[in-house]
Amino acid sequence: MYNILKYKIVPFLTLIVVFSGCRKIFDLPEEKDYLSTKMTYFTKDFTPVLGRLFMYQGIFNPDNSSFPMTFEIINARFGDGRSADDMLAKKPVLVWTQEYTGNEKSLAEIEAKRKIEERPMVEVRPSGDIVFWPSCTSETFKPRDSVIYPQDIRYFDVKVKNSGGTRIIKDLSIIPSIEIPYYPAEDINRFNGLPNTSTPNGTNLVHNYPVVFGMIGEGTNAPLEANGGGTRGVVYTYIRKVPNGTGNSLRFKFLNKDSVAINPAKFNETKWDQLVHGFNMEKTGEYVKFDVAYPIPVARIPTRFTSGGVTNTNGGTTAHVEFVYSRKGFGGAREQGVISQEFAIYEKGDWEIVFHFKTVNPKFEDE
Amino acid sequence: MRKQIILLSIFFSCIFLCKDLVAQTKKVTVSGTVKDGGTNDTMVGVSVASGKPLKVLTQTDAKGHYSVSVDDGATLVFTYVSYSQKTVKLNPGQTTLNVSLKEDNKTMEEVVIRGYQKRTREQTTGSSFIVSGKEVQDVPVSNVEQLLQGKVAGLNIQLNTGAPGLRGTVNIRGLSTISTTGAGNETFLQPTSPLYVIDGVPMDADKASEFGFQQQGPGVSPISLIPQEDIASIEVLKDATATALYGSRGAYGVILIQTVRGNSEIPRIRYTGNFYMNAIPKLRSILGGSNERDLKLYQINTYGRFDDRYKISNTPFLTDSLNPYYNNSTDWQGVFYQNTYNQTHNVQLDGGDTKFSYKTNLSYYSDKGIIKNTGFDRYSLNMNMDYKPTTRISFFGSIRGNVGKIKKANGVGLLQTGVAADGQKSSLLPGPSFFQATSSVLSALQTNTDAGPKNLNTYIEGRYELIPGLNITSAASYDYNVDTEDTFTPAAANNQFAKIFSLYGYTSQLYNRNNASYTRSFNEKHNLFINLFSEMYVKKGQSSITRLERSPNDQFQGPLGYDGYYSRGGGILTTFYDQNQISFAAAFTYDFEKKYILDLTYRIDGTSNNGNKDPYSKNPSIGLKWNFNKENWLKDLKWLSYGDIRVTAGKNIFPVGTLVDIYGKYTPKGFYNNNPRVGIDYEFVPNPLLRPKNVTQFNLGFDLGLFNGKLDVIFDTYYKKVDNELFTSFLSNTLAFQKYTSNDAALANYGYELSFSSRPLSKDSKFNWTVSVNGAWNNDVLTKLPDEYNGQFIEFDIYTPYEQHLAKRVGRNSLANYLFVNQGVYDSTNDVPIDPITGLRYRNNSSTNFLNSFQGGDARFLDANGDYILDSRDLQVVGNTQPVLTGGLSNTLSYTMPSGSSLSLNIYATYTAKRSILNNALADRLRLLDNPFGYGKLNNVDNVLGANPLAVVPVNDLNMWTGPGSTNAKFANAYDYAHNAYVNNYRYAQTLWMETGSYFKINQITLSYSFAKKMARRIGLNNIRTFLSASNIITFSPYSGPNPEGVTAIGRDGSGGYPVPRVYNLGFNVEF
User: Fold this and answer.
1) I need a surface site. Which of A95, A139, B191, B395 has the fewest CB within 10 A?
2) Is B748 in Cβ contact with A127 (below 8 Å)?
3) Does pLDDT of A160 surpass 90?
4) Helix ranges, B424-487 (H)
5) d(CA A235, CA B1002)
6) Which runs of E-coded beta strand occur in B810-923?
């Protein structure tokens, strides 16, 4: 009996040690991910332009909630309560797998860096960013007009979840604008996509103008201007589609005041190989054509083909082309004429950029 | 009236008569000698007692001789501190009795103090630990606290500053607060030091430091003013029952310090002298002279952007290497650091007999810091006396007078940021000399500080035994402390204009305690103890400052002649306080045959720091103990010396909050209709419901003594809940007020404490070997935040370059870091993830700048939200700033030579584990490479080329990325300063700096030699002991910084700290 009791002490003391190790007996709260009650979107009204990638980045304010979280678009609806789930349909889009550098040597090399994936037209990322893929087109979305009716507005809620719980951020709205497939697009009416007549019933067409400098007008012997009017010169830029192509081409064309093509070879100092990130240059007497990847630029990365080049480290939103020629001016000085254009094209296709010397032709001949 | 006097006199005469009636048998005079059973030396000051209840009759004299007159056949009891008591029954007619006492190795029979009453440990239920005064002697320190490091399980002491006179952090059983102030490396955790009770007088050790690093004034803790030689014993009380009776301030634990009492019939003089050297620990190694220039040019040539090459020629310190001004290799750290030689002297006089004894301790302590122009001197005179005219009346009185003097260079308190900044200067610049000195150097070395506390503490206690067993005691103390600081900065050190700063502050504490206690035994089986007392504090404190700019010259440091325009005045600081506190307490203990013990206490505390709606709080506690070794069925076990199980629970408070929190702050608001207006300050809304912090503790523990003192084990496990933690919430901006201080936060600690101590050798051996090991495991959990925060609050640090935020999240450790997670280094640019939607490389910030993209050689930061942008959304709650495991071990080996001399070797070590600390010192070191051009501020213009050339430190010892293929690199390419400016690889707020703060430190090694008494007497002395000691000798740690302990309470290792010196000491104890 004694011995039994004696040695019972040992397990008893062991029990004390073990008992205290259990956190549960103290009824302490478990650690959970934090989900703030004040999390919100800085922007709740989205006004994307259809047909191009529109990502609202950094608009979700998590108020220090713990990532990773899952986000989900729920309750897509119109202002009158109709379902708007059609915008969540999956469509093929291009996603990047490797970084575009601007040094790719062929179209295939660029295409190898991205692939086609099926993604919902409107997507929310795990960071809360809202993405409008280029697959959002006016087929599904009714573009806004100058008057917006509440029943036409698409609304949705975002459901946010982590181990701390679930919250729903309500009433985010989409008011899309009609596709404007290129930039600069002063010539397009941004409500209906028709030529811009400046006022609803106006007759004056608005045009895009390139940057022109150092050119002398043929016959005027005065500096040629892009938007001078009359004898000071008018140069229009047309960005337009060309029928019957592979969907991967871009060509440049120059028209004189008689709308007759100027031979691009006349721009004798143009760096053709650094003009656009295109391949298989085809130079004819009428145009210069490249095989290119769309959109242009393919990503917002500064390259030697974008405005400002690589040193413009904030650039990469637009491409830049520059055509140069030189001639011997008065007194034998060599004069350089430059016509340049910043542009972007968002829609895949066969495009041409036409510079139309509307009133005065440039003078290429030496003095 | 007359009737009352008559009644009283009858009452008293009865008492005196009764006493006389007892002593009526035959008396004999017994004499003899008391010797130490181990060394065979005679013992001085052994108490000889007899009777029932025991009365001390005499003490042995200098030769160990005693003589007492007792009843024939009486029982004599010999007691001596830390020796086991010996009881001898005299044979009838016996008149000589020689005894030898053995050193006591049983923890159970120690005398402990509970609620200002002495009790034996066996009869108390609380958890506590005693450190004897002997253990804190052999290393000279300004603050005796630091010698307790690693000696008591659950007492976590981190020596995080080497600044002379200042203290580290002390916490009992984990974290008691989550309140922090300040920012960056200066984020300061509200100190929660235990309450110190010195000879019955409570003292607040945090008094000097509660306002953070940047506080004005000397910042010397009152605990630094107690000389270590004057300490007889230190007891650390841990659980709620032990601290219950210290109620209103005992929530953070209690440390009781007993000073030496007079203990010798023949007056003794004991002298202790220490001569010691403070040695500079390892400092940062830097590249000097042309190495520095070459490295900077290499950086610029390899990684610079185009414009940088051009700038080289505009930066003379890089190009003009033949210019003597730039052709140096100056060791800037050497300008500020020094080895110092110091001494301390302590003389202790004591004497007296059982009726009257006295002690005087005179001490001088001097510590010149390893940073020049810093140091701490202390002069103290402590006296106490015991007067016992009869066995029933006794008085104890003490006076402590201390003067401290501290020099702080131009630093403030714990930080020496000026020195740290100067220590980073480029080695190419010429060092300070007669012709050439920078004002920052002068301000560090020539700022003239005269600062320090002056403290006077008086205490008197009277005790009267009304009837046997019933004692009444009344005690009062007054403590007055004056802090002054006069700082004079000479003109050359302050842009050609001298300046004066002066602070005057006082704190006072009036304390009174009245106590009645009663003990009674029934049939030797049932024992009762009742203690009732009341306690009262009146505490006041106020400081004011004066700041005068542009005084006339360096010779005249007086208050006259200054520039009124630039002077910013001063006035009374907001730290002023006026607190009153009153408490009533009752304690009841019952035990049955000392086997089953029940402790109950109840305490009511009213403090003026509570909201005025309900100033009283009620604090009960209960303790149970079972001394199971006294059970019949275990009595026969030879190997079990003692064993018990303790269970306690109780509540304690600590007043938090200030008058401003309760009543609001009122400020003058100009005039209206010629009447002055005083209105409330809209920063804080007053909270009249503010309650004190509430600490509830449950403790379960056992003590075991095995194999006749060969092994002692103490184990405790506890759960400590801290409620009503003060928390300042921000109010909605639609309200008039901005902030609201409430009691809505809470945290909890739970853990184990284990102490082993063993004396494996036989008691008769010439060798005496003691090993003790202790450890404490503490987890803290934040349990509550104000509801509106929904379980997480981030303390953002956005106004300093550090941006190391603190996360307080319910359910995890209370103080975590909120940082970017560093996952290594990108081996090449191809490894950097690409945003599939935009095609852009992962980049820093939402900036559109392409250069913000990460590339090969950059740090791999976790993109927690998957948006391919590194910003504040990617911050994660990581780490634990508080240590989980702390403890220490000690090893003492002593050898007694046949001659009687003895040699002893002590080694103490401490360890801390499972803690994350932020190695900001390393971050600073790598960030030095970010600025090869020495951009800096010049004449109030920021970013001037070459204005502030910085030193560079070698980084080739780090596992750094050197090019593609450095797959396991840990550190990003630090040389690429141009790119780092965009991606900020070496940002402070990242887990790269979060390292484990585990360490094992050998605190102290002491080798001492005691000369045999015979030898000492030959030269007319009673005792000589000499010792060599070294402290902070070596730290073993995986930590890559200099010292894992030299970090702030929330684990930041800033370069601005004061390194802890190594100390080598030679000391003597001489007894006349």
Assistant:
1) A139
2) no
3) yes
4) 439-446
5) 85
6) 816-819, 822-825, 843-844, 859-861, 869-870, 876-878, 885-896, 902-913, 916-918
Beta bridge partners of B250: none
Q: How many residues does chain B have?
A: 1072
Domain residue ranges of chain A, discontinuous segments joined by +: 40-174, 182-357
- Report the residue from A60, A127, A302 with minimal CB separation from B850: A302
Residues of A in contact with B873 (CB under 8 A): 60, 62, 67, 127
Give the gyration radius of chain B's Cα atoms.
32
- DSSP string covering B17-32: HHHHHH--S-EEEEEE
**What distance in Å separates the CA atoms of residue A338 and residue A326, rounded to the nearest whole number?**
9
> What is the DSSP secondary-structure string of B313-348?
TT-HHHH-TTSGGG-----HHHHHB--EEEEEEEEE
CA torsion, ordered A131, A132, A133, A137, to nearest 10 deg: 170
Distances in whole angstroms, Cα of residue B418 to Cα of each of A156, B282, B406, B433, B440: 57, 19, 17, 18, 7
Q: Which of A17, A99, A127 sits opposite B867 (nearest CB)?
A: A127
Q: Give the C-alpha separation, A274 to A282, whole Å.
A: 14
Which of B715, B841, B873 has the CB atom closest to A127's CB atom? B873
Q: Which residue has the tokens 């509660």?
A: B210
Structure confidence by residue, pLDDT tens digits, B818-837: 999 999 999 988 889 999 99
Identify all chain A residues contacting B718, using CB atoms and an 8 Å cutoff: 20
Nearest to B137, CA basis, from B299, B28, B274, B23:
B274
Contacts of B513 (CB under 8 A, 6+ apart): B116, B200, B473, B474, B475, B476, B533, B534, B535, B536
Q: Which of residues 262-321 of A touch B (CB under 8 A)?
A: 298-302, 313-314, 316
Q: Percent of chain B beyond pLDDT 90?
A: 8
Rounded Cα distance between B139 and A366, Å, is 98
**pLDDT (average), residues B203-210:** 67
Residue pairs spanning A and B at CB distance below 8 A: 149
Q: A260's torsion region: left (phi>0), alpha (psi -120 to 50) or beta?
A: beta
Chain B interface includes A26 (CB < 8 A)? yes
Q: CB-CB: which of A37, A131, A301 is closest to B850?
A: A301
For chain A, the distance separating the N- and C-terminal CA atoms, rounded to the nearest angstrom, is 128
- Please tell me which of A122-126, A310-314, B28-32, B368-372 the model is most confident about, judged by mean pLDDT: A122-126
Cβ contact B811–A69 (<8 Å): no
Tell me how far apart the alpha carbons of residues A182 and A346 are, in angstroms, rounded to a whole number. 6
Q: Radius of gyration over alpha carbons of chain A, in Å?
A: 31
pLDDT (mean) for B308-313: 87
Residues 6 or more apart in contact with residue B618 via CB below 8 angstroms: B602, B603, B604, B605
Residue type, B486: D
The one-letter amino acid code at B743 reads N
State the virtual CA torsion across B439, B445, B450, B451 in degrees, nearest 10: 100
How do strand B767-784 and strand B792-795 relate by DSSP bridges? unpaired
- Element at B422 (helix H, strand E): helix B417-422
Instruction: Name the least confident of A334-348, B82-96, B305-319.
Output: B82-96
Chain A positions in Cβ-Cβ contact with residue B849 (cut-off 8 Å) = 313-314
B633·A1 Cβ contact <8 A: yes
Contact A242, A350 (CB under 8 A): yes
- SS3 label, residue B1015: helix
Residue A359, classed as helix, strand or coil, is coil
Give the nearest chain A residue to B789 (CA atoms): A36
Query: For residue B5, which phi and psi values (nearest 5 degrees)?
Result: -60, -45
